Amino acid sequence: MSIAQNLDFYRAELAPFGAMLVAVSKTQPIEALAEAYAAGQRDFGENRVQELMEKAPNLPGDIRWHLIGHLQTNKVKYIAPFVHLIHSVDSLKLLQEIDRQAQKVGRVIPVLLQIYLAQEETKFGLDRDEVWSLLQSEEYQAMQNIRIEGLMGMASLTDDTQQVSREFAQLATLKQELAQAFPENEYRRWQHLSMGMSGDYPMALAQGATLVRIGSALFGKRG
Ligand SMILES: *Cc1c(COP(=O)(O)O)cnc(C)c1O
After folding, report:
1. Do 77 and 98 touch, CB atoms closer than 8 A?
2. What pLDDT is stored for residue 123 in this prediction?
3. Is 0.85 surpassed by the pTM of this model?
4. In this predicted structure, what is the pLDDT of residue 1?
5. Residue 150 DSSP code
6. In sequence order, what are the residues at sequence separation of 6 or more whose Cβ sits closer than 8 angstroms to the Cβ of residue 140?
């Protein structure tokens, strides 16, 4: 299957749910991204700043770049001028730095809060208490150059589809609770649930994903 054919397949999968496809292009060569672009794909997800900075100048300027991997505060400045959406905000400190760099370049940067869902120990993300205290903090409430647009989460890597569904459902419920407790304003919208990857996107769609991040199933195995 070509990348264009794969794109057609996933667009058809997502369309009934109104969800958007983020093509996860990490470790893929420029040619693979260009092929997806030619087939109409505009949203691409990368998990490393350095790789993103190498690719972006070599591809068309209307690509919407999503940063989906763990972001170190000292790298924010590189992507602040152009990043479309940062999915992986996992601390107040990181959010403060995004706000600061966004102000420097005169932007409001859209972000998602990454929530810790999986049972594995290694995953990044905020837990329920942390997301709550972040949103209540004075530091957050003073920020004017970020806009929180929803939540992102990664489910456990397991064949237990019920567990994966349960974790996605927890993320959807948390978003509803936060939307109640922290009403929308200029700097806060609750429209996005970024969840689902190649192996678990059907469960994510069933639980209300609006952004689905698919890599290997679209581009083939990573090198
Ligand atoms: C790599 C990655 C994906 C895509 O994973 P695939 O299994 O290749 O679809 C999605 N989200 C994040 C955060 C990733 O790092």
Report:
1. no
2. 66
3. yes
4. 82
5. E
6. 92, 95, 134
Return the pLDDT at 158.
93
Mutating to test ligand 1, I would choose from 3, 7, 68, 205 the residue with most ligand atoms within 8 A of its C-beta, which is: 68
User: How far does residue 122's CA lie from ligand 1's centre (Å)?
Assistant: 15
Nearest CA to 185 out of 114, 135, 138, 151 is that of 135
- Take residue 50 and report the two structure tokens written for it: 């350095």
Geometric angle at alpha carbon 219, from 30 and 166, rounded to 5°: 130
Tokens encoding 194: 């970024």
Cβ neighbours of residue 175 under 8 Å, at least 6 residues apart?
A: 150, 151, 190, 193
Instruction: For the chain of 223 residues, list the mean pLDDT of each consecutive stretch of 10.
Output: 95 98 97 98 98 98 98 98 98 98 98 89 84 98 98 95 96 98 97 98 98 96 58
Q: At what angle do helices 128-136 and 161-181 cross, to 10 degrees?
A: 20
Both tokens assigned to 64: 């919407």
Residue nearest to atom 12 of ligand 1 (CA): 68
Give the C-alpha separation, 177 to 200, whole Å.
24
